[in-house]
Every structure is written in C-alpha cells, then in structure tokens.
Specification:
The chain folds into 2 domains: 203 residues, NAD(P)-binding Rossmann-like Domain (Rossmann fold); 35 residues. By secondary structure, the chain is of the alpha/beta class. Strand 4, helix 4 and strand 5 form a beta-alpha-beta unit. The chain is 42% helix and 14% strand. It contains 8 helices and 7 strands, in the order βαβαβαβαβαβαααβ. Helix 3 packs parallel to helix 4 and helix 6 crosses helix 7. The two termini are 30 Å apart. Strands 3-2-1-4-5-6-7 form a 7-stranded parallel beta sheet, with helices on both faces.
Length: 259
C-alpha cells in the first residue's frame, strides 16, 4: 500500500487553532497542502490565519465563534462547503478544586463542560452534513481523559466525556465511511496548560519549574513537549494510512500514560 501524507485537495477544519497545539496542527496540515480553515473564540484566530497564509503562500481562512453557542457554530461552518477532516481541538483548562465553592469555580466548571463537551458535539453535528465518505473526525483529549489529576476534576471529566463521544461516533458513523479517533497529548508547553499550573505553584509557594518537575516525575522520556510534537499524530489519523483505524486513542505523552 502506498501511503500519501499530502492533503492537497482536502479541506481541513481545526478548532482552537489560534495558538498552542491547535496552531501547530494547523501548521502541519498547511505544510501538507490542505485547504485549511481554523476556528477559535478569540480574534487572535485572524492573526494566526494571516501568519499561516504568509508562511505558505495561500489563503488560510480564520473563523471566529464560541463553539458552545450552537447558532454561532452553524453560521461559521456555513462558510465551508465540504470538510474532509474535522479536528475538534478547542478546550478550556482551569483548575476546579473540589473544596473551592466560589462562584468563579462554579462558572469555570460549567464553561469547561460547555466548551470541551458540548462545543465538540456542536461542531461535529454541524460539520457532519459536509463530511463525505472517507472523511475523518479527530478529537483532542488528554492523558487526564484516561486517568485524572488533583484539582482538575472538571477538565478530566470533560476529556473522559470526549473519549465517550469519540467511541460512540466511531460506531455510529462507521457505516458512512467516516472514521473517528482521538489524540491524547501529555504535558505540552502551551500557555493554556501552564496558566493553571502557574497559579497552583504560586498558591503552594513554590516555583513553576518545581511544580512541573513534580508533575513530570515518573515520565519515561523527560521534559515537556513542544506543541509541534502533536501534529504528526493528527496527520497520521487523517491520512490513508489510518483508513482502518476508528474508535481509538493515540497517546502522544512521552509515556506518561502506559496501559
């Protein structure tokens, strides 16, 4: 079998792609020749699209909407005729300690579920009529979607839920020739991942580096990963090489989760 990792002629939509892992995934697909749409809630998505457009010499379209709002999602995706590859990457990751009963934590819990769970469902549902046979849906989960972590119960719950959605859609959409899988990143050095850890370190009176070292203790391959480390897994799952893979979780975590 000849495997082609070119995505020329394929249309790819990536959510949460204004920065971090999402931007790195977008860069990988742009490099591979895809017709690319990137979506995010903040207006930085337009700057990210402009950066990629300049880098690769063709238009990369930025779409701005809150994926927790179904009507906004429908309107944004109305600009796309066909979606060969959908990557549900958008996520929200604040700490939600169980003993903290503040209004902020209550609001964060609801927002986590609205974005990470309902948002992914909203985008998948709106995209589905545009996904042809042979299409791909790929979710970004997390190592905490396979385990758990102190202080991050709501985020971990949302990423477990993402895997439940992924597995169910794999069964539901398989007869239509659409594969559905997930990537579970480990510790990736992004602002989104480090912001709650920085707050936790300050509360504990230790440095960010000390707390990160504690989190990474026992990881077979040491150190945090750059966002670019994740792109290859998404490219693989979207490629012809993964045509017979569905309902699976691919961990890119330097061995943080082995099981």
């Amino acid at each position: 079998m000849s495997v082609d990792f070119s995505f020329a002629g394929k249309t790819v939509l990536i959510t949460g792609a204004s920065s971090g892992i999402g931007f790195a995934i977008a860069d990988g697909f742009a490099k591979a020749g895809a017709t690319l749409f990137i979506l995010a809630e903040n207006d930085a998505v337009h700057e990210a699209a402009a950066t990629l457009s300049e880098r690769y010499g063709r238009e990369i379209k930025g779409l701005q909407c809150d994926i927790a709002e179904r009507d906004q999602v429908q309107q944004a995706l109305g600009q796309i005729a066909k979606i060969d590859v959908l990557i549900n990457n958008a996520g929200y990751q604040p700490m939600t300690p169980i003993r903290d009963t503040s209004e902020k934590v209550e609001a964060d819990i609801r927002r986590i579920i609205d974005v990470n769970v309902m948002g992914a469902f909203n985008v998948s549902r709106a995209a589905l009529p545009r996904i042809p046979r042979g299409g791909r849906i790929i979710f970004t989960s997390s190592i905490w979607g396979r385990t758990g972590e102190v202080g991050f119960a709501a985020y971990a719950a949302s990423k477990h839920a993402v895997l439940g959605i992924m597995r169910s859609l794999a069964m539901e959409l398989g007869p239509d020739g659409i594969t559905v899988n997930a990537v579970a990143p480990g510790w990736v050095e992004t602002d989104g991942a480090l912001a709650p850890v920085r707050a936790e370190a300050e509360a504990a009176g230790i440095s960010l580096e000390q707390l990160v070292e504690q989190y990474l203790k026992g990881q077979p391959i040491p150190g945090m990963m750059p966002p670019s480390s994740q792109a290859g897994a998404f490219l693989f799952l979207a490629s012809d090489a993964a045509a017979d893979i569905t309902g699976q979780v691919l961990g890119v975590d330097r061995g943080s989760f082995i099981g």
